[in-house]
UniProtKB/TrEMBL annotation:
Organism: Clostridium beijerinckii
Residue span(s) of domain Purple acid phosphatase N-terminal: 52-184
Official protein name in the record: PhoD-like phosphatase
Positions with biased composition (Polar residues): 439-455
CDD domains the UniProt entry points to: FN3
Length: 552
């Protein structure tokens, strides 16, 4: 994340209400900021695009479904055509191909939002240091300007799992996309590549005074696009890969569809580059995607939601900007609970998780994922302000993970790789007994996967493989593109003050090179291997960390 200087924040106005209900989870309702300014819709003019663009296929509710989304600049009856690839004659669809009408909506965006800051009270109604000064991008929509675009969405159901399909989408004016191929997810196991914030367009942060400026930071939008393209090139060399999982902040710009200061940058261009970093390879069209809303994605209101077609999307966890609440999907033996942390109250999410688990009682594994990481070690480590509700989430959402026996949590936002111990009731615990444990430093090893002299790395004494562990393990993933990195927080990065807590961390790494996590679930194992990209070939990637959970 970053806070643009262009966004003005007003003094805190507390509007949160607290509802104390069961057990020890602080239930916080209605985390709503009040708008005190007016939104300025800047003049913008988009490049003319003929035919469908920003085409992507989201994971479906289960492996028999894929949920497609694409943009057009023309209205009309847009459609998707899809067939088993084995029935295709080259790029020609058979007469048996399924043709489905899309749902089309007018795309709107809210730009340059002035918001107030929300101060949350805790469960006791007090503004504690852990909660004081929170804000959330959850304001009322003050302006929704049509962008001249249309969002088209089609959920295709009844597909065969683990099967390759060919598809093409139309713009309603007779123009069809190229034919892409995509494989549905399997039912018995699942493997995916997870990235921390791609944040296409964040390069300008590297021009500042942050240390990352000294690490070869990206200099323009094209550098971010190239970083993303290289990462996709690398991860798709994993032949067992079933889908791509992005931890939010897919794009960077807070305020503008098209920047007044740079007519070739802004969210519009950043989405274009996220979905099409290389139009000759079409990585994003050929692989199912799971993505969710980071603070940057959220800052232009409803513009985010038009880009994705997410399964089982709920009003629970939504913000006032639109229907971008929580969603769930199943793949292999796993239930994925995708939570919108831009609304970081607990009541909605708690209800959502309960309902999703009730709808999927037989899953072997439960994974929760959201953007603003609970346990992070860099820039957001001790902050709890504006768009960084890290401490509130640490103090509240983790209790939901305990309550629902979530196995694994995947997060972004901090641009610094962190693997925690098994966490229970807010503490690192012995995986076997669940008793609180003070982690000890391991021997000083060299920093894996980098030669950068500013790199930081710490490993504590803790097993890399556990069986039937107590508690939940949390991962925060570093940048998947290299668009922005954060430095280890030694306790002096925080304008609020206070020491940085790293008691939860087993492995922390900042190599200032792009990284990703390769995650596999079978019925009885979870394995995550996090790699630093070197030359973007799988043979030369470097293992940063590995962790395995076995369930017997
Ligand atoms: Fe973020």
């Amino acid at each position: 994340m970053k806070i643009s200087k262009k966004v003005k924040f007003m003094l805190p106005i507390a509007v949160a209400t607290v509802m104390a209900t069961s057990a020890s989870i602080p239930f916080i309702r209605n985390v709503n900021a009040e708008i005190t300014g007016t939104s300025g819709i800047e003049n913008f003019s988009l490049p003319k695009v003929t035919g469908p663009y920003n085409i992507n296929a989201n994971v479906g509710s289960d492996p028999k479904e894929l949920d497609f989304a694409w943009f057009t600049q023309s209205s009309g009856k847009t459609q998707i055509k899809i067939s088993r690839t084995s029935n295709m004659n080259g790029t020609e669809f058979p007469t048996s191909a399924d043709i489905q009408d899309a749902e089309q909506t007018v795309v709107k965006a809210t730009q340059s939002i002035n918001q107030s800051e929300t101060a949350l009270t805790d469960i006791d109604g007090k503004a504690t240091p852990a909660n004081n000064g929170d804000a959330v991008y959850n304001g009322k929509k003050t302006a929704g300007a049509p962008t001249g675009e249309y969002s088209n969405k089609a959920k295709v159901k009844g597909l065969d799992p683990d099967t390759q399909y060919s598809y093409s989408v139309s713009d309603g004016q007779g123009n069809w996309s190229p034919v892409y191929t995509i494989t549905t997810l399997p039912t018995d196991k699942v493997t995916f590549a997870a990235f921390g914030d791609p944040q296409i367009g964040a390069f300008d942060n590297s021009k500042g005074t942050a240390k990352s400026n000294a690490t070869g930071g990206h200099k323009n939008l094209n550098d971010d696009k190239t970083g993303w393209n290289n990462m996709l090139k690398l991860v798709t060399q994993n032949k067992d890969l079933n889908f791509l999982f992005s931890m939010g902040d897919q794009i960077n710009d807070y305020n503008y569809l098209v920047q007044p200061s740079n007519s070739s940058d802004g969210q519009w261009y950043q989405y274009r580059d996220f979905f099409n970093p290389d139009s000759t390879v079409n990585y994003m069209q050929n692989m199912p995607l799971a993505a969710f809303c980071g603070n940057h994605d959220h800052q232009m209101g409803e513009y985010y939601g038009y880009h994705y077609n997410q399964p089982n999307i709920s009003k629970l966890g939504a913000t006032q900007y639109g229907n971008d609440g929580d969603y769930w999907f199943t793949a292999g033996p796993v239930l994925f609970l995708v939570l919108n942390a831009n609304n970081y109250g607990t009541a909605d999410h708690d209800q959502f998780i309960a309902e999703a688990i009730k709808a999927n009682p037989n899953v072997k594994w439960k994974v929760a994922t959201w953007h603003q990481s609970a346990y992070s070690e860099a820039n957001h480590n001790t902050k709890n302000e504006l768009d960084d509700p890290v401490l509130t989430i640490r103090n509240t959402w983790t209790k939901m993970m305990d309550k629902y026996n979530i196995d694994v949590v995947l997060q972004g936002h901090d641009h610094y790789y962190t693997r925690t111990a098994q966490m229970l009731n807010g503490s690192a615990v012995d995986p076997n007994t669940g008793a609180p444990e003070t982690l000890k430093n391991s021997s000083n090893a060299s920093v894996p996967g980098t030669t950068n002299p500013n790199a930081t790395y710490a490993k504590k004494e803790y097993p890399d493989s556990v069986t039937n562990p107590k508690g939940t393990v949390y991962f925060t993933l570093d940048s998947g593109t290299g668009s922005k990195y954060y430095d280890f927080n030694k306790g002096n990065n925080d304008t609020i003050g206070g020491s940085a807590d790293h008691s939860f961390s087993v492995v922390g790494w900042q190599g200032y090179v792009p990284s990703y996590s390769y995650v596999s679930f079978t019925d009885d194992t979870f394995t995550i291997k996090t790699y630093a990209a070197n030359d973007y070939t799988i043979g030369n990637q470097s293992l940063i960390d590995s962790y395995t959970i076995t369930k017997k």
